[in-house]
Write a structure and sequence with these properties.
single chain, about 350 residues, alpha+beta, Hypothetical Oxidoreductase Yiak, Chain: A, domain 1, Ribosomal Protein S8, Chain: A, domain 1, 7-stranded mixed sheet, 10 helices, about 15% strand
Length: about 350
């Protein structure tokens, strides 16, 4: 691995995006939000995605001058039309709306359609938790990689769910999960690095495990918890997609294979204000007490120890803020080629 500083990474992303026509302010904001995925250790959703974003932009699959608008505004809810903008911009706007409405009503549900891939789900719920709000995020994935339980037709995506609970001065309690055993970004990372996948990630159309990530198009990602993960993916698709008039199931566009097509990605952001339920400080103390009880509980002998969701991301963020973002040699070569193509300075290979 090579490491690059946050400032170098942000400048590089912004330069590349501006080189392909993204307005400077939007490029800077997207660069910042992309790096939030890398900071938390979601390496398949940050800098790694830049080449694919550029391909979609160049193919005309993204609107670089969108007119996002709230199509429906009903009390604590709103429906946001992203106008096919870069997904990070759509979700940042959804979070802003959720913050305002949650402070006003105690709860907010913001649905969106005509968005795009927006990086790790954790980025957006963390933004809410940092404001003292409980954040929940759901999305329809940008390509179907999972078959219904008992079937072989790819009709569902990894459909992620993220929940963040504020914990005062302690790390945010944060769950970010795909409804498949592995997010597809991990498959793409393994392919780039020349690594094999565990035999629990994917199966082919005859039900046999696939371990070569380059054969991923031949199979289906397996859901978490067997039929339970399939059911959860379906429900998230209906809530984040069908409810918003976004693409789900057969309508889902594979954003890698159809780069010129609008994906009509559906997402949902929910925010809860703890003060609507009582003293927010008392709530945080109750959260911290539960966390302490878990941390101090007895681990299985010889096991890896007990972890609370969000602890690992908090440690990774602290480390990477200090040491920089680690990039594989393969990714460095890809990004350097991108820089040469667009006349942008190469990444500094810092030790």
């Amino acid at each position: 691995m090579q490491y690059i500083s946050l400032a170098t990474a942000q400048g590089f992303i912004s330069d590349i995006l501006r080189a392909v026509g993204v307005p400077p302010d939007d490029a800077a904001r997207v660069a910042h939000l992309m790096l939030q995925s890398d900071l938390a250790g979601a390496d398949g959703h940050g800098l790694f995605r830049l080449p694919s974003y550029v391909k979609r932009i160049q193919a005309g699959g993204v609107n670089l001058h969108p007119k996002m608008q709230v199509e429906k505004d009903f009390g604590a809810t709103a429906l946001l039309n992203g106008d096919n903008a870069l997904g990070h911009l759509v979700m940042a706007r959804a979070v802003e709306l959720a913050q305002v409405k949650a402070k006003q009503f105690g709860v907010a549900w913001i649905g969106s359609h005509h968005g795009n891939h927006a990086g790790a789900a954790a980025v957006y719920v963390r933004m809410l938790a940092e404001q003292g709000l409980i954040g929940i995020y759901m999305a329809v994935g940008n390509a179907n990689h999972m078959a219904p339980w008992g079937g072989i037709d790819l009709l569902l995506s990894t459909n992620p769910l993220a929940i963040a609970i504020p914990a005062g001065k302690q790390p945010i309690v944060l769950l970010d999960m795909a409804t498949t055993i592995a997010a597809y970004g991990k498959v793409k990372l393994a392919a780039q690095r020349g690594e094999l996948m565990p035999d629990t990630w994917m199966i082919d159309r005859s039900g046999k495990p696939i371990t070569d990530p380059k054969r991923a198009s031949e199979g289906s990602l397996l859901p978490i918890g067997e039929y339970k993960g399939y059911g959860l993916a379906l429900m998230i698709g209906l809530l984040a997609g069908s409810l918003n008039g976004a693409a789900v199931g057969k309508e889902t566009i594979d954003f890698n294979a159809q780069q010129a097509s609008a994906t009509n990605t559906g997402q949902a952001v929910i925010a809860l204000d703890p003060s609507a339920f009582g003293d927010p400080e008392a709530f945080i103390e109750r959260v911290n007490q539960v966390v302490r009880d878990i941390q101090q509980s007895t681990p299985i002998p010889g096991g890896a120890g007990i972890r609370v969701p969000g602890e690992g991301a908090a440690r990774t963020t602290e480390q990477r803020q200090r040491d920089g973002i680690p990039l594989s040699l393969e990714l460095f070569k890809t990004l350097d080629a991108l820089a040469i193509e667009h006349g942008v300075p190469l990444l500094l290979k810092e030790q």
